[in-house]
Specification:
Length: 371
């Protein structure tokens, strides 16, 4: 079986600078693939190559076995590659229903008439699409009244209306609320049942929600691939995300994750809790203020929620680590008053840590200044 998409030794040079550097990548039909990587890794350029916006300096991209070289963007779109850009491109004066109708018609006229593309098995109706994207109750109001998230979903719907074989989605949750982010994840997962999708994303928590297979890009090449757990624990990934000049170790990352999970216990992670964690950890992991600022930024990208404590805590290898974890977690949940959900999570943490009660008492009595 040929892969749906194959990128073979692709290099893209901009005046000698290699935005993509001998990149190899392959995915099969039906996959939902998430691509992550630090800023400047080449993620957008990667999509630009697939859509024909940028031509490889060397190497080739093949879609369904066909070399994409020299094909114009609109031709590649007709081959069945649909791209969703970061800013929604919907007609604001039209309703969601009208926007979708336009996309469906474009599909019929251009694809079906010109190219005799056989209708896909799951031919979608406007009504069905509105339901899929959760906008059936807002179908007939002007799109300008939709929230940012709803506009994103509408644009995803408009792409799906054109029945692409491969959907490319660039940072779909930037600027969305937590609830919208989660709903976007659900939408993409439901679309993934009948589409091949590549999602580029920064938001680690979102990636964890949807990711099956993750590809990490770094300096224009694939650094590693695997499940979210595999890539998040890969020391090379930790290193590129946190910067080589800092001294963060997998143990320190674990401390960050547990603390973040505690902070998420009550379903909200308020900014006081977040700055407390970031302040404490950046001061602990980096020694100079110049190092702390970028580290804080990087750490904030890693505050993944919904990792069960029973998965994280057993990875702590020493009593010193367990004590540190307890200390910081206690401080975090106390920062804005302890509620029921937080108390329950904390109790679970204490029992998983399995520290002697007198140590727990001593730690709880310690103020954060001595941390
Ligand atoms: P990402 O999306 O992962 O942040 P990009 O693909 O946007 O990364 O960029 C990769 C690198 O290539 C960056 O260093 C960027 O500055 C550079 N780059 C991207 N497009 C161009 C261009 N048109 N001209 C010159 N350099 C570019
Ligand atoms: Mg980008």
């Amino acid at each position: 079986m040929t892969a749906l998409l194959e990128i073979e030794n692709v290099t893209v040079s901009f005046d000698g600078f290699k935005a993509l550097n001998d990149l190899n990548f392959s995915m099969n039909a039906g996959e939902l693939r998430v691509i992550i990587g630090p800023n400047g890794a080449g993620k957008t350029t990667f999509l630009d190559v697939i859509t024909g916006k940028v031509q490889p300096t060397s190497g080739q991209a093949r879609f369904k076995g066909k070399n994409l070289k020299k094909h114009a963007e609109h031709t590649i779109a007709r081959f069945g590659i649909g791209r969703k850009f970061q800013t929604p491109r919907v007609y604001l004066n039209l309703t969601p229903r009208e926007n979708l109708e336009l996309s469906c018609n474009r599909n019929k006229n251009v694809f079906a008439t010109l190219f005799k593309k056989t209708p896909t098995a799951e031919k979608r109706t406007v009504g069905g699409l509105l339901e899929t994207i959760g906008l059936d109750h807002k179908a007939d109001m002007p799109a300008e009244l939709l929230s940012h998230g709803e506009k994103q979903w509408l644009e995803i719907g408009m792409l799906v209306a054109q029945s692409p074989d491969l959907l490319l989605v660039d940072e779909p949750v930037a600027g969305l609320t937590d609830e919208e982010t989660e709903q976007t994840g659900n939408l993409l997962m439901s679309l993934a049942e009948s589409h091949s999708i590549i999602v580029i994303e920064h938001d680690m928590e979102f990636v964890r929600q949807i990711a099956r297979q993750v590809t990490v890009l770094h300096e224009g090449s694939v650094l590693c691939e695997g499940t979210m757990d595999e890539v998040q624990n890969d020391p090379r990934v930790i290193e590129v995300y946190l910067g080589q000049e800092t001294s963060i170790t997998p143990e320190q990352l674990l401390l960050l994750r547990i603390t973040a999970t505690m902070a998420w216990a009550d379903g909200s992670f308020d900014s006081a809790e977040q700055s407390l964690i970031l302040d404490q950890l950046s001061r602990k992991f980096a020694h100079t203020p110049e190092e702390q600022a970028p580290l804080k930024e990087e750490l904030s990208n890693l505050l993944a929620k919904k990792i069960p404590l029973e998965e994280l805590v057993p990875q702590l290898t020493s009593d010193a680590q367990r004590e540190q974890t307890l200390l910081l977690s206690y401080e975090v949940i106390r920062s804005n008053g302890i509620n029921k959900a937080e108390a329950a999570s904390y109790q679970q943490l204490v029992s998983l840590l399995n520290l002697p009660p007198d140590i727990v008492n001593r730690l709880e009595a310690t103020t954060v200044e001595t941390f």
